[in-house]
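Work Package 3 (structural annotation) set out to generate three-dimensional models for the target panel prioritized at the project kickoff. During this period the team completed the workflow that converts sequence records into discrete structure tokens, so that structures can be stored uniformly alongside our sequence database. As a representative example, we reproduce one entry of 139 residues exactly as it appears in the project archive.
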Amino acid sequence: MALERTFAIIKPDAVGRGLTGEILSRIHKAGFAIVAIKSMRLTKEEAGGFYAVHKARPFFGELTDFMSSGKIVALVLEGEGAIAKWRDTMGATDPAKAAPGTIRRDLGTSIGSNCTHGSDAPDTAAFEIGYFFAGLDLI
């Protein structure tokens, strides 16, 4: 497998419940290198730009309200097959359908409050990493 980078977010529900350390621990245990990390609070407009691909969907307003409701932790993770590996580590979007031992199954409370985000493909990873981190952040 090729070494690749993916983008991850620890979402406001997880940060607000004090789960950042637990999720970072799971990232390390899964064998990822953290290339870049920052804690921040998105404006509704910034959240809208990040999730622009979902703009026409009925949940867009609710999603941008949620993602701007509190602090997030944005990360760039690196590892072999990082995109698929991070998605496996997170688990399915719906915590009730996620595999045992995944972040979303163990820590998520609903589809909307599922603790984490992860890129789903190389092109989205590139966009998402670039949305939050400048080139010098990624050295």
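The helical segments are 12-16, 20-29, 44-50, 60-67, 82-90, 103-107, 122-132.
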